[in-house]
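Provenance and format

Records in this collection were gathered into a single text stream. Each protein contributes a sequence line and a token line. The two records reproduced below are adjacent in the stream.
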Amino acid sequence: MEDQEMQLKVRRVSDKFTESMYVLANEPSVALYRLQEHVRRSLPELVQHKTDMQSWEEQSQGAIYSVEYACSAVKSMTNSSMYFKNIDGLLRQAISMKEQISISQGRSLHDVTPSPSPLVSAPHAPSTSSWPLD
């Protein structure tokens, strides 16, 4: 009988001990401790990911700015074709005037009669002929 009684007491003690261990293992403070351990282990990696993402964001913002600037430059270049046409016309006109001046100076060198005053020259009418420049 004592054996059965002893076994029953041992069984109760072991059940109580198991229940106590279960309660201690699942106590909220233990859960919070395990949560703190997890955060302590994973936080440095998360911080590194955050700094990497911030660096990539800065690089991508710089690239976006460069692309937007390049796009605006291309747009302004396409809008400037009117100005280039105007410059082309003015250059053609300047070349034509230069040729007319060269021709008129060539004629004045061949003139035998001197002009009344060397400082004052007679105005020359611009020529109506157009010179091909292409």
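Adjacent record:
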Amino acid sequence: MSSHEEIKAPLTTTKSTIDGQEWLPDAGFISGGTSKNLTIPVLVPTLSTVRSFPLQNNLHNKFCYVVPVYRTAKYLIRTTYFYGGINGFDSPPVFDQIVDGTLWSVVNTTDDYANGLSSYYEGVFVAQGKTMSLCIGANTYTDSDPFISSLEFLIVGGSL
């Protein structure tokens, strides 16, 4: 893993470069969900696809990205969401994002999406082992398939 590793969720089966940044396909980091292309125009290429996770009868399903990391290193994790009507509803679902088994935040992109904007969340986390997980999970407010547009893991120096 380089000092600036980024994972794009989802992409194709090959690496790509967008605006000078290398993005990796997400298939090697997650085993569930479905890659979908948005049918509306977007200004940022990284928002043109999402990985959608099926909402089933069990509201406690979660789908996890597992990323190799350096133990004890600090990572900036950035998740980006742009709904784009992918589930066929006017408003996006509300759901949880979880880092290494601990609730990070509730993802509610409704206001941003109503204004044509994407939503992003950033946090700095210390790797406790050789991998870190970022999970997307349904909660009691989830009414359609949770999704993610992009996921970034960036190792940060000792300044934080």
